[in-house]
Amino acid sequence: MSTRTEPGPRERLLEAAQELTYRHGVGVGVDALLKGANAARRSLYEHFGGKDGLIAEVLRRSAAEDEAAYRQTMADAGDDPRERLLAVFDKLADVVTGPDFRGCRYLAADLALADPDHPGHAVTRSYRARVSRLLAAELVRLGHPRPDRAADQLLLLIDGALAAAATRPDTDPVASARELAVQILEAGTARPARG
Fold it and tell me: What is the pLDDT of residues 143-177, one digit of tens each?
């Protein structure tokens, strides 16, 4: 006989906040978060110190999941660094056409959190730095002469594609971003013509 354990208030708050802040933005009210989690206000303060702490933890949790998705996407693409990098854009094409797509969680949070000292900003900066390093490692394997710069350019394309897909769904920004990514990869690995 097995017993099923229901998630506690901390986990319920995280799950509800992860969904509600993505669907409605980080400005979603505390009452909506508590109702969605079926949790008491006391639990919010005991586990997270308040809404700001909950938002930061949701961003941290989402970042870990999304970073793992980047790694899995690249691993599924095989060993060729070029194909691994382009697979990221192919995966984005699937993501932005999903029924629940609402744009980039991290960009939306950074724009909505007016306080520059909000702990969420440190989480989003750290996440972007880790993704940039992940991309740069593939660019090093590719032999790109400026892997850090090219990784920043690829990350800019990713952010831009996610933003444009959310705000202009009738366009195909991921396809455009992928074309530009190919140019970045080719510019870095082009060999001078021998004459």
Answer: 999 999 999 999 999 999 999 999 998 889 999 99
Cβ pair 92, 174 in contact under 8 A: yes
**Structure confidence at residue 61 (pLDDT):** 97
Full-prediction pTM beyond 0.85?
A: yes
CATH superfamily, with its number, for domain 56-189: Tetracycline Repressor, domain 2 (1.10.357.10)
CB 26 within 8 A of CB 55: yes
pLDDT score, position 3: 58
* Residue from 131, 137, 138 nearest 157 by CA: 131
